[in-house]
Structure formats: structure tokens, C-alpha cells
Give the backbone structure.
Amino acid sequence: MQKKLTITVDEEVYEGLRKTIGARKISRFIQEIVRPHVLHPNLETAYAEMAKDEKREQEATEWAEVTFKGADHETA
């Protein structure tokens, strides 16, 4: 059974969600992010479940490579 939840976010965050995720997909996106934090107190299990999502893992790997590649050139 689904429950309706009303949340408030900054307009900039909302526009980013609509642009990145799509207007009709925001609820599912938020649910997938929140689920491991509230249903799986065992983080190891939650991370293992997330790792099964190959598309998500590929996107995370690409993001990490770009992020850390830029960190090589930073000075303290």
C-alpha cells in the first residue's frame, strides 16, 4: 500500500529534480534513496542491495572518476 507524503524543498532543488529525474519520477527517486536508510539498519546489507543496480553503479563510478580526477590537480 502506498501513502501520500507532502514535502517542502527549495525551488532550486525542485527544478533540479524535474530537470534531472523527470516530473513524474521524483517520488520513486526519493523512495529509492530513502529506503535503505529506514528499512535496512544494517548498512552492509543496504549497500549490497544498491550495488545490484548496475546502471546506478556505472553512474556512480563515472561520477567518482570525474570528481577524483579533478582532485589530483588541487593544491592545499
